[in-house]
Amino acid sequence: MLGLLWARLCGLDNPVRLRRAEATRRVLSLDLNKDRDVERLHENGINTLDIDPVEGRYMLSGGADGIIVLYDLANLTKSPSYTCKAICKVGKSHPDMHKFSVETVQWYPHDTGIFTSSSFDKTLKTWDTNSLQLAEVFHFEGTVYSHHMSPLATKHSLIAVGTKGPKVQLCDLNSGSCSHILQGHRGEVLAVRWSPRYDYILATASADSKVKLWDVRKATGCLMTLDRHNGEKSKSSSETINTAHNGRVNGLCFTSDGLHLLTVGTDDRMRLWNSASGVNTLVNYGKVCNDSRKSVKFTVSEGCSPDFVFVPCDGTIALYTIYSGEKISVLRGHYDNVDCCVFQPQLQELYSGGKDCNVLAWVPAVREPVPDEDSAKSGSNRHLNPAFEDAWSSSEEEG
Amino acid sequence: MAEMDQRLAQLVECLTTSGEPQLNPEQMKELKKICRSSDDHISHMYHLLMTQLNQEHAEIRLSAFQIASELFTRSNHFRTLLISNFQEFLELTVETDYEQPLPPPKEVAQKLKALAIKTVQDWHEKFGEAYKKLSLGYHFLKRNKKVDFQDVRTRTLAEKKREDEKKQRLENIYKEKARKANEEMEEMMDEIHATLTEIESCFKLLLPDPDEFALPMEETGNGDKDVFALPVPAVPCADDDDDEQPCCSKDLAPVTLPNNHSENAAAANLCSKDLQSDESDGDYETRGQAFLRDHGLGSHKYTLSLEIPTDLKVSENENNTDVINNLKDSLKLAKNKYWPAVQSWIQIFTKAGVSDHSLLGAIDLKAKLECALKKQKDIELECKDKKSEAVSASDDDDDFEEVPEKEGYEPRIPDHLREEYGLEPEVPPSPGKKAPAKSLAPCFPLRRKRNNDPLKPTCVAATLKVMKDQLEKRTPSTSSGGGGEPSSRCETQEGELSKAPVVPIGLDLQYWGQEPQTAGKILKVATQHRFWASSEMDEEVESKELEAMLKTRYVSFPGKFEPVTHNCRHPLDNGSLCERQDRYKCPFHGKIIPRDEIGVAINPEDRAREEKQRMEKEAQEQDWRDPELMREIEQATGEDLGSSRYSGKGKRAKRKGKKKYPNLTDLKQKANTSRSRLEKKVFNTGSVKRVISAMNQMDQRRHEKFANQFNYALN
Known about the structure:
The complex is a heterodimer of chains A (399) and B (715).
Chain A: H1 2-10, H2 15-28, E1 30-32, E2 36-38, E3 46-51, E4 58-63, E5 68-72, E6 82-90, E7 102-107, E8 114-119, E9 123-128, E10 133-139, E11 144-149, E12 158-163, E13 168-172, E14 177-182, E15 189-194, E16 201-206, E17 211-215, E18 224-225, H3 233-236, E19 249-254, E20 260-265, E21 269-274, E22 299-300, E23 308-313, E24 316-321, E25 327-332, E26 338-344, E27 349-354, E28 359-364, H4 375-382
Chain B: H1 2-16, H2 25-37, H3 39-53, H4 58-74, H5 76-84, H6 86-93, H7 106-127, H8 132-144, H9 157-206, H10 210-223, H11 225-229, H12 234-237, H13 263-281, H14 284-295, E1 312-314, H15 321-352, H16 357-378, E2 379-381, H17 383-395, H18 415-418, H19 431-440, H20 460-481, H21 485-499, H22 507-510, E3 521-524, E4 539-542, H23 544-551, E5 585-586, E6 590-591, H24 604-622, H25 627-637, H26 643-647, H27 649-658, H28 674-682, H29 685-702, H30 710-713
Parallel strand pairs in B: 1-2
Antiparallel strand pairs in B: 3-4, 5-6
Helix pairs in contact in B: 1-2, 1-3, 2-3, 3-4, 3-5, 4-5, 4-7, 9-15, 9-16, 15-16
């Protein structure tokens, strides 16, 4: 660290390098911290979390009880311990509250004034954050599993919606109506994601084991269907359909640069695809437990080298390097299945929500103070809390 | 190091498999001593404990949990390790996962859970600040699993869920019942109301409502003074006292006022009424004098005591018979049918927790019915005892119907008819004889058309005759016996007779000293046919045996029972002696012979014989029972052929190995219930095969040619 700082000071290093090194270190030291808490407001499991992309300060959470809560993550109290407060919530008293479980919440990518939420009550709602009023409602024929807005598109404001029906719908926020329908899947669409690199590229994952990439300007059909065998085995066998997983595909995530796409399926596998060519990169992540019937929200880190992916895996969150597939660590803290996790790129924090109604904050561990000459003092500092001390009884006989 | 680890493993195994509710303090001390020496030991210990906690036995888990809690409070390293895997720990001890219930035995599991919950709370209080996951776990238990830490019974969510399911099921059943009851009630509501109205109106007819009843009285008392002012009533009333009538009798024509007054009181009653009315008039003085004069009474100093009966009685007469009958019917209906029904509805409704109009309606109905029944009790129908004989049949469901006297039956048979009954004309007055004859006569069911040939033994007359003869025979004998004696002897005899047991008379005694004619004769039927009978149809054959049977009586004398005092005492495999007490022959060991105290036969020839038998048996078995081979077969088939008996040591050692932890509650043994034993028998492959073959045979037979004819079915 000191060396890096020195190199930076002397101008030997690219500024990115120091940042990367420190970010990586912080991500690797993520753990539960007793100083950081998130207020508990949900009575039921938490399905979705989203942190606003502008400031990285506000977090939305959607629960299985239909409640949406808005948290403030920034710690302005100057004391190490901080409980993330809920600023406001769309609770039971709100007239426009979702009737059933909220499946996805997302901030409007360019502003914190709007957010969207979709739910099993077959609606997608757009909210005004400041007044907490309903701005727009889209109704669908089936329950909504997931929706997504393009994080970088400025020319269109389309929301891709995956519902119980096999058609992917595109809703235009400008006109307030469904503008497109993308046909091609045969099962319910569990996850949709816009590419963070190209405005019009959309990836969808479905229960029919297929993952499709679309260019929404192209009317005829999808760009490609991802094939886990890269076309080799399917040629020899009689089946002609390309499947991405051997089971339902219920999670999608682009890497931060948009060059690769990660998918998870109920076959307990995670796969990494080249998003340009649709080639399976055949990275082996091992077994990634996943038996969710709904969509699973997982996330990738930003600005680290190598980059990491955080995947909910039963009651834990597994941390893998994206490109080598190495399992770095497992974050244990939830007492029930984890449904979603979201990464805060500026501070390298991770927030996760699960069926045990907890939102847990995973915070990088602070560096331990360097032991200086006054070692006795530091020793006593380290064991400030008596709970961390051994409490063997003094007499040898008692044990 | 390795030694210590090994020792740790040993200690953990020892402690966890002890099956005791408390840990052995000495072993625990040793364990702690090892653990405190280094963190490596604690890691090792942690893994050992987790494996033990994963065992499917509540006692092992309990002990392991106790060790863990001991170490948890002491070692930071152990805390860190345990809390890093706290989810699994809770699953294994507090049963947080509905799918993973705690293993049997149940009581220990309950104890484990209670202890674990309590301990987790303690830990949270002590260390919750420092270990985030611990407090998370605590809150998880508290909020998500709804563990009530104050609750002593500590029911977790899983348990609650099960209970709720049960409750739900019961509730559904109750609801269904309530719904049915509601339907039923709606159906019967009209009927009940109709009956109630009927009862009500019947009562009204029989006895006007007190309110209504009082009204005319008041009127007559206050308004219509003239009625009493008239001198008319007093004079004529004096003589028809048996049917005294109140002034307003015209209002209740069919009903006489309930009254128990003595007859002369009745007359006075009237006067008193007049008196009262006079008093009410106010100008009593003048009118009183006149009254005195009019009625010829001496003074005013008569005291009249009125007995006003509280119970109302309605006497039945031909005017109100129909009303009363009707009332009775409907009351019976209300009492026997409606009231219990309503009662059960109310019960069902209260159980189901229904508290809407249906329950209210039911309660209302019940009140009404009870009111009606109470009224019936109040108005004790006088007619009841009057008519009890006539009505009893319909009234109180007697088993026997009263039959009107039969024409033919006469308790006292007139002399000229006696012949007809097959009786001798009675010897006129002799009173000593008459009594028994008279008392006997009604005992016999008399039927005219009976074949009363005195020769036929079964007819009444014959028996009577026999008895009479005996009586006659006896009287001279007693009289000849002695003058003063017989009375005392009779007394003693009577005393003995009263003590003597009553024995039913057998056929032999019945015909004692007679020559029954029909007995012992068999009607010989030559042909089975009904009408193609030969002419000499009624041929009778006398059978000596049958006749003898009727005349002889067997009294069996089995002698006195002597219990067997000796035992078989044949030496058994387990070293003891056979305890069977058979008289001559033991079913297992043959003839019982005298043996010494260790079971060896005393007689040398017996001993030789037994030895020989044993040798033969052994030889026989050994040549085909190769224990090795048998064990192999046993392993392959999984059936016990009994190789253990012959192989001796090897197998026994194995068995011991199987039962590793003798202190733990054997979970498999728990299954040794009557049900499981029966299952073992019933689902035994052999018996199943047998049943299958039998059923197959039956099935096959069904397709055969004459399957439905019984004489083919039996072969």
